Amino acid sequence: MPTAANIRDDILANPGFGRYFSDHMAHVRWTAEAGWHGHEVRPYGPLTLDPAAAVLHYGQEIFEGIKAYRHADGSVWSFRPEKNAERFRRSARRLALPELSDEDFVGSLKALLAQDHAWVPTPRNEADESSLYLRPFMIASEKFLGVRPAHEVDYYVIASPAGAYFKGGIAPVSIWLSSHYKRAAPGGTGFAKCGGNYAASLAAQKEAEKHGCSQVAFLDAAENKWVEELGGMNLFFVYKDGRLVTPRLTDTILEGVTRDSVLTLGRDEGFTPEERAISIDEWRDGVASGDIAEVFACGTAAVITPVGQLISEDDTIQMPDAGNEIAKRLRGKLLDLQYGRAEDTHGWLTRL
Ligand code: COI
Hints:
- Its EC number is 2.6.1.42.
- The chain has 352 residues and is an alpha+beta fold.
- The protein contains 8 helices and 16 strands.
- Strands 1, 2, 3, 4, 5, 6, 7 and 16 form an 8-stranded antiparallel beta sheet that branches.
- 2-OXO-4-methylpentanoic acid binds next to loops.
């Protein structure tokens, strides 16, 4: 008879991404009258929602993604959780949801980990990037079909052991350039981490898969010219002369915690970070002239993943097959920090 611990060990040996969940979930309730209250950690399981709950009709929802890493001494750490807490509040403001304090956000991660510590995988070696992916989310649970901000809201954190996000690990990914679909428009919700942005990207994702690509690159909605992001990841361009360029933050781009960390680590490594608008023509011409040496995607789930090619209806931008050494170097630096193999000189780790 397999025990719960045996089953957990089997899952942790090969977790994949987002398929398995730990034993508990954290929960805090909010009502317009009482504010945040009822902090608890309870067994993981289905939610009971009224069929008229606002989230099911109008998508009033936000979420976060953050990982817990086990260090060699067995301790468990998260990476810059206050950045996620801050972004969660920005998302909340845009979706007219109540704001959660840093204390409640980080406190909920700690409370869940106090129960589910054993669900944080122990990496077998330096190439093993397994972790416990934490997914905080907030939903409008009020039973009401009028279109207005809900007066009853629930916040949860669930946890899912995670290996590499892409099946091929750090093998370069193929990206589809959507010529028709747009992810975000100025004044919209692009900068917020809300389910609606991801739902709106799925038709383009289907198109990508039809063309053998695992992700979609989105251009801006106004001019169909400027590179924005992949929908679930930010993009970086490595220039031969040492510039590390990423699209500047606008209200149509999600401010990634990994993006921000790569800018700092890149500077530490002697690169010149540039946050500015970059056009699809600059990408095409830069690769053709050899000025752009590498392109990579980054995010909490994907860490840093090289881009191998960008396919569109008109053409394919084929990235040079030169080993993606810079992406690998920055990825190594980031993972060394997250797994406690390098000194945390930026003060980015918080013990859970
Ligand atoms: C993350 O990187 O945490 C995300 O939320 C992206 C999603 C594609 C898994």
